[in-house]
Specification:
Helix 16 links the parallel strand 7 and strand 8. It is elongated, with a radius of gyration of 34 Å. By secondary structure, it is α/β, with parallel strands linked by helices. About 65% of the residues lie in helices and about 10% in strands. The chain has a six-stranded mixed β-sheet, with helices on both faces. The protein has a four-stranded antiparallel β-sheet with strand order 2-1-4-5, covered by helices on one side. It folds into two domains: about 300 residues, Up-down Bundle (ABC transporter transmembrane region fold), CATH 1.20.1560.10; about 200 residues, 3-Layer(aba) Sandwich (Rossmann fold), CATH 3.40.50.
Length: about 525
């Protein structure tokens, strides 16, 4: 995932502007301490002519503090704006990429895991990446300028700061490498636990009915223990890093104070210089402690970026024009997954307006065959041939597909139907509602249907999915995966006849266990016994 592809020029300019302002703030933050040193030295002299100088320097000090405050506020505003913009841009980029990902590759991915990774990690990235890099620049420059001015007051102090700083940096680097590896494992454990927990919540009814809540709870506990182990380890790593950083630099500060006091006694350092050094201490310790904190966040960012990048590396479909296909043919098609042969040497020919029923036992490749006919999957061997006006076509059919577990949005029934065709006219909507016997359902559930149709019964939910599918009437091919599921015999029979008549000029595929319709379709393919 390259930032160059998702961030426009204006945002890049503002990002570097924000970093520049933070750099200026880091430089400006040094000068007040220098001014305090001069004020103290002038005050120690006890001469009246120094009062004007003290007032002048004091006003300059106040001006710098006001400018520093304004620049800091501007930095926070830009950081918030950039993070909000990045969040939106990243979400759009992820959504656009998912819309182009090859369905063949995403079909065999864990969709819950995929959605969790993209949701959780993209949120963490968008909320932290700008602030983290800004804080990194600010802390690094604050330390460098602080170190420079401490050294300019007395160069011998550099011999205290530099060695301990180098030792601390090396140790933090080694700890960071361990932290990064553990964070990747922690994120994976978190994703697995969230998936298990989410599925347990979504499926709590069957778990309760079958008295297996406790057993499933043990599964959650096992996943939780794995996450707890990596979380505790991460806490140990971060605590160790914090201890090393704080201890080494507190030791540095103590040594600087002792050495500076000795220099004052010997007359090689003024009282103002000592005051400045005392104030510089926090400019040396705070940035380095901040660097250590930002480093932990950056390790998390690296882990999140790595996971999101892997998800976004799923292959995309080659752009292909769709629509107008009136003939589909399978010629010697073979399909296998993970070495397991699903389909072998399948031949099939369908014309526009024909209907096909695909039946067979579970796991025999019914949905796979439909996906091959739709051009969603590419065969391992053999050919999938599309024709338009009896001529070979490089295009693919436009498909309207009702999945078994298709998602319903938490909106009205009509809005869910419009997902299939946003331009649906009111008259056509009424026709589709009548076909799918949804009048009473809409009356009972006029408002949102709940997450994934949770307020609907299984049969009501299925009727909404059928309506959404036939709403996309411009499609060449309509696929219904287990239309009869959740519908009683009479309801299924009535709705199927209406749907098949409504789509009689289209190519239809019914993936079905229910054999009531096999005498009513043009072709039946039983994957257990061959083509009839």
């Amino acid at each position: 995932m390259s930032g160059n592809h998702i961030i426009d020029t204006r945002v890049k300019v503002l990002f570097f502007t924000q970093l520049f302002i933070q750099a200026v703030c880091a430089v400006i933050s040094v000068f007040p301490v220098l001014l305090i040193r001069d004020i103290v030295d002038l005050a120690v002299c006890g001469e009246d002519q120094n009062i004007r100088k003290i007032i002048y320097i004091g006003c300059f000090y106040l001006g710098i503090q006001v400018v520093h405050g304004l620049l800091s506020a501007l930095t926070k505003y830009l950081t918030g704006w950039l993070q909000a913009n990045l969040s939106l841009t990243l979400e759009k980029h992820i959504f656009q990429h998912i819309s182009k990902v090859s369905l063949q590759s995403i079909k065999f991915s864990d969709s819950v895991r995929l959605s969790n990774i993209l949701a959780q990690d993209s949120q963490f990235i968008s909320e932290n990446v700008v602030a983290s890099f800004g804080e990194l620049v600010s802390a690094a420059l604050s330390f460098l300028f602080g170190f420079y001015f401490v050294s300019s007051i007395n160069r011998h102090l550099a011999f205290i700061v530099l060695p301990l700083g180098l030792i601390s940096s090396v140790m933090i680097r080694r700890i960071s490498d361990t932290s990064y590896k553990n964070l990747l494992e922690q994120r994976e454990n978190s994703t697995r636990l969230w998936k298990t927990f989410y599925e347990g919540i979504m499926g709590f009814l069957p778990l309760r009915f079958h008295n297996t809540m406790d057993r499933y709870g043990e599964k959650i506990e096992i996943q939780g223990k794995l996450l707890e182990k990596t979380t505790v380890k991460q806490g140990y790593i971060e605590s160790l890093s914090s201890f090393v950083t704080r201890t080494l630099f507190m030791v540095t500060i103590g040594l600087i104070m002792i050495t500076s006091a000795i220099f004052v006694v010997r007359g090689s350092l003024t009282l103002g210089g000592l005051t400045a050094v005392m104030m510089y201490n926090h400019m040396l310790s705070d940035p380095l402690i901040k660097l250590q904190e930002v480093n932990h966040r950056i390790q998390r960012l690296k882990a999140s970026l790595s996971r999101v990048r892997n998800m976004l590396s799923l292959p995309v479909e080659t752009p292909c024009e769709k629509g107008g296909i009136d003939e589909i043919e399978l010629a010697g098609v073979t399909w296998e997954i993970d070495g397991y042969l699903i389909l072998t040497q399948v031949d099939l020919h369908m014309l526009k307006g024909q209907s096909l029923m695909i039946t067979g036992a579970s796991g025999t490749g019914k949905t796979t065959m439909a996906n091959l006919l739709a051009g969603i999957y590419l065969p391992g061997d053999g050919k999938v041939i599309f024709r338009e006006n009896q001529n070979l076509s490089p295009k693919k059919p436009k498909v309207s597909y009702m999945l078994q577990d298709e998602y319903l949005f938490d909106d009205t029934i009509c809005q869910n139907i419009l997902t299939g065709n946003p331009t649906l006219s009111d008259e056509t909507m009424r026709t589709i509602i009548a076909i799918c016997e949804l009048e009473d359902v809409i009356t009972r559930h006029g408002e949102a249907v709940g997450e994934n149709g949770s307020r609907l019964s299984g049969g009501e939910r299925k009727r909404v999915l059928i309506a959404r599918t036939i709403a996309d009437y411009d499609s060449d091919l309509f696929i219904f995966d287990e239309m009869s599921a959740s519908l009683d015999h009479g309801t299924f029979s009535r709705i199927w006849r209406r749907v098949d008549d409504y789509l009689k000029e289209k190519t239809r595929i019914y993936i079905e266990h229910n054999r009531d319709i096999q005498q009513l379709v043009d072709q039946v393919i039983d994957l257990g016994s061959g083509l009839n």
